[in-house]
## 1
Amino acid sequence: MRIKTIKWLLLGIATIIGTLLLAVVVSLAATDCGNRNLVSPVIEHKIDSLLHELTLEEKIALLHANAKFSSAGVARLGIPELKYTDGPYGIREEMKRHSWQPARITTDSATYFPTGTALAATWNPELAYLYGAALGSEARARRKDVLLGPAINLIRMPLNGRNFEFLSEDPYLNARLSVAYINGVQCQDVAACVKHFVLNNQERHRSEINVTLDERALRELYLPPFKAAVIEGHVYTVMTAYNKFQNAWCSENIFLLNEILKKEWGFQGFVVSDWAGTHSTYEAALAGLDVEMGTEREYDSNYFARPLLAAVETGRIDPAIIDDKARRVLRVMFACKTTDTDKRSYGARNTPGHSKTVYDVAAESIVLLKNTGGLLPLRAEHVQKIAVIGDNAVRKHASGGFGAGVKAKYEITPLAALKQKLGDIVHIEFTQGYRKQSAIHFRQGIQRETNDNPDIFLINKAAEVAASVDVALVFVGLNHDYDTEALDRENLILPYEQDRLVKTVAAANPKTVVIIIAGSPVDVNEINRSAPAVIWGWLNGSEAGKAITDVLFGDINPSGKMPFTLPVDLEHSPAHALDTYPGQHMCVEYKEGILVGYRWYETKKIEPAYCFGYGLSYTSFHYLNCETDKQLYHIGDTIQVKIQLQNTGDLTGAETVQLYVHKPESSVLRPAKELKAFQKIMLQPGETNAVTLWLSASDLAFWDVTTNNWKLEPGEYKLMLGSSSMDIRFSKDIIIE
Ligand code: BGC
């Protein structure tokens, strides 16, 4: 009897401890792992003594590559090499030390995470934190110190080959997710590296192009994600962009690096060049670049190697500048505990936990674009035969796309997942539908060769199969010949005449669901015309197939929202409408200014195919009782906006409530809508819950080019609360005094 009592007691204690631990884990997951300021009196003191001991040569060795993905340490003082890795959505396979060739080892497989736009489509910073934490843990397991991500350039232009790596066309959504991602990574004792600072918004001519734009657009759109990464995310490192800004390379741009990043924002970590993106010794060193990586020359002759030493020795560069750079590198090393391995996170890779995070992100990212007649979700008991059509049903997307590619331990394709889920109950017939008819070549530079001749035999076969089944699932979209670094696309049309396939299949079977697998905007006109149900499935990581299958069959209720606009026509999008892409004479002027993405479509009243923030659910939501805490606000105030959200359907589901603002009367052009807050909330059928959003009055300011400062104009502002940028359910007017 007594033994039993003790057993129960122990069990009780264990449960309490377990619950407490869970609470700690959950609260960490939701927020942060504590203070990660790079600067503290103790650390600075330690660095002072080290700088005293280091020779000039040793300091300079810290400032440039000694291999493709590392910079030197100082063995005699126990300072290890600093090891870098790509990339934003998975730890890149191991490369040979001095070349871009894979090392071909067997211990470098990694979890493949959903790419940037997929993460953004979750609108869920808590998931972004878990994503970063899992990525950081994999980086540690591979003994890396600096993770070259997140890639947070704004999606300015739909054809950018790298959009899939980036997050959004909106700086606020971008910032919320990247700050959480950075927190996750850095809590694993790995430095995140936000890239590419800044204005790397097209791949075409990226290594030569000079970007010009007015400072207002720079301040209001392109800088805020980086500013949030530094000020809120305490990011340890920043990578410069390849391009120029106002005629100066970003890697030697005094205004960007010294004035804004280091002085204005107080960045205390180090600035690293993009690989082979350094162009000088003196200018770069003085402008604020700290570390040079990737230059295709003997390391010793890198700009920041012997030439830097010579510049100091001849008195051209003050040794204090070298000390500052070395200090920044050492700060990051200490913050990541590189010299204190006993205390450092050990990391783990390919764990079930990481797979779960990948699945959760993928599941929450999937966007239901269209669902006529409630065709979805499908019910396994109501379908006997389904057709699975299209190359993207069987294609794996982990590798490719250049630096960001991942040697995935595994990747579940849609067809594999469908078979796994339905194999015994439903007859599945796969047919190819279209073939990938493209390849990337490295002949004279990087080129894509493609063939868009439709394979009529495959299309007819697909239509025949579709006609014989209950439901046809057509997996179309892009692959890494298109969603890729170094090359933009030529247009938005789906390659290999996939539109023709969609049209033919949908004509053969009215129950056709189209699933778009792509990381960047594509032309969806034909898909919209032909298919009753459309889903955006992204490049969605190791668990991609499973997540899409679970959405199709209703185990997951879709809750993703588009992080970018899908235009009806490429020419409607701002950079193309104003003929500012790819620029002339290696110069591109961002003539659209602050009207990027939905800011443009809303202000110019151009109807897109699907707007920013759009996404349906299998349930429905009702917005009730919108109110603000006051009507009159002053600078420094917080504005509180509250609504009741009700799930009016039969299924549990999540909605993202979005808050946009507009100033009707202003001394300058104000976009018709600007996202200032959002909140994702899960509700049971019939459940009603309050959603509270906050913004500060200063979030309503604009960048005044006449005073070179933020200006909060007094007067009336419109707050708009809705389910997407176009679906506004409540408007409230407030006054700023
Ligand atoms: C890319 C970076 C990447 C680096 C190292 C560059 O080409 O622009 O994003 O981190 O290569 O692979």
Note: The pocket of beta-D-glucopyranose is lined by residues 86-87, 148, 195, 274-275, 403 (CB under 6 Å).
## 2
Amino acid sequence: MEKNRGHFGTRLGFILAAAGSAIGLGNIWKFPYLAGENGGAVFLILYLGFVFTIGLSIMLAELAIGRTTQRNPVGAFKTLKRGPWTAVGAMGVFAGFFILSFYSVVGGWTFAYAFKSATGLLATQDIKILGNAFGGFISNPIEPLIYHALFMVITITIVLRGVDIGIERTCRILMPLLFILILVLCIRSLTLPGADVGITFFLEPDFSKISGTMITSALGHAFFSLSLGMGAMITYGSYLSNKVNLPHAALWVTSLDSIIAVMAGFMILPAVFAFGYDPAAGPGLTFITLPAVFSQIPGGMFFGTLFFILLAVAALTSAISLIEVVVAYLIDEKKLSRTRAAIVSGSTIFLLGVPSSLSLGIWSDFTIAGKNIFDIMDYLASNIMLPAGGIFIALFAGWVAFPKIMNDSEGGIQDFRWASIWQIICRYIAPAAIAVILISGL
Ligand code: PHE
């Protein structure tokens, strides 16, 4: 193991950090509203289908590429095979910039909502009032930007110090707490009068509603939610020792991530229907319905505040992995110090996020194909960049690097019962399926 590159101390520490990367706004904020927009149960089935086939295979491929090479995505491809493959790593580094810029805007919203809950500003179950409050907040030209800046400053501060015991320990305490709180909220949401309509919506598929856009979004979301297709898992894999069983670790991270997504669905969707709200309301869904649920439980103000703080933590642990891809690249390849790398990339990402935030208010008139800048960034990242990255990573693992990432005595997977099936998925099934869906989606 190379000196000066941090690495995870324990197997549990790694799984929690990787799960911390995967579990984030994607699961709790994005998944419920995507399911709401895309027919509920049908979306859930498609999403889980992609997660446990293509997703799991590419998760393993990324971790193995990372651990074998002990490098950032660009360096990893370069180490395994010189030449044009390096561009796949470069694309990943670019995607890190790109995704974190709007991710951090939403991360900022979670901070704002923690403050708003704590000061009692959200203590109502009137969905109209909550909707207006949310709309007013995100369209404000200044307030969300302050929180976006705060979010980036905290992200930079953590990454500056290295992803060391501090963040590992934080995850270890806070992630279980988040899990318990989501469970409590699920129960409250599921027992609201009128929740059954939402439960049916989420669990009983109506396959007649299936559409191409639904399939593309489900695939894109599988990548986004598992942090795949841009090298985040290559980077985390590169901090991993060769004692960890990679297929097991991949299965753990994948399972934890989808469990949280399903729970978030149960937390939000029944409440949406119980309060007579529109499930296709989009990005505001979580921020509007959850405060209404909190107003229905004793100590709602306290739990509401705690929830948004934990959501902010979940967002931060994902943001760290996004910026870490860029930072690891700048350190390994450009020989920048960690401090420099974190500050330079973090401030650029902040600036890149400003248009996304403003596009929800004063710049909302600027649209392409009916989408504002925020939606365009999200669409390009989730539905194009990550799946495209996934195709190349799968092809690379299946055709180019397979013997090395399987057998390498330092970091290879070594012993894996399903190796030949995995190779077939990487070589043919995953690239072909993703390509067909991508192309039909365009
Ligand atoms: N998986 C994270 C989430 O669900 C987002 C993310 C995407 C993180 C890509 C890293 C890489 O919120």
Note: The mean pLDDT is 92.
